[in-house]
Design a protein that fits this description.
The chain has helices spanning 2-10, 15-20, 24-30, 55-79, 83-113. It has 120 residues and is mostly helical. It has two domains: 1-48, no CATH class; 50-114. 65% of the residues lie in helices and 0% in strands. The chain is elongated, with a radius of gyration of 19 Å. Helix 4 runs antiparallel to helix 5. It has five helices and no strands.
């Protein structure tokens, strides 16, 4: 969704506007196409996905990722005065909050159940 928002915000920009916004190198390589990278220009990689194989450790990692995403959406909301963009970002922020809550509930279930013997 973020990539689509960025595309919509930049698709009609002129080369001069893109250069003024610091997007000249991206335009020179990709025209108006998006390239997934962080704010420092580091390309996205699957190495960003963390998994330990332990359910509790993995859920805590998921909670941290959701909270980081929530904070990022809040910073983006604070950076724009475009109400439509803010509404979309608020939806995404709230979704991260709900995800974090569900992961926290899952952690509690695992903690409550880990000492019980299961017979199936």
């Amino acid at each position: 969704m973020i990539a689509t928002m960025i595309y919509k915000l930049t698709k009609d920009a002129t080369v001069e506007q893109l250069e003024a916004a610091g997007l000249g190198p991206n335009y020179a390589q990709r025209d108006h196409a998006l390239f997934y990278q962080n704010s420092a220009g580091v390309p996205w990689t699957a190495a960003y996905i963390q998994a330990k194989g332990d359910p509790l450790a993995d859920l805590y990692e998921d909670i941290a990722a959701e909270e980081k995403a929530r904070a990022t959406y809040q910073w983006l909301i604070d950076m724009t005065d475009d109400v439509d963009l803010q509404d979309s970002l608020k939806f995404l922020r709230e979704r991260e909050i709900v995800h974090a809550l569900r992961f926290k509930e899952s952690v509690q279930i695992l903690i409550d159940e880990r000492g019980k013997k299961k017979v199936y």
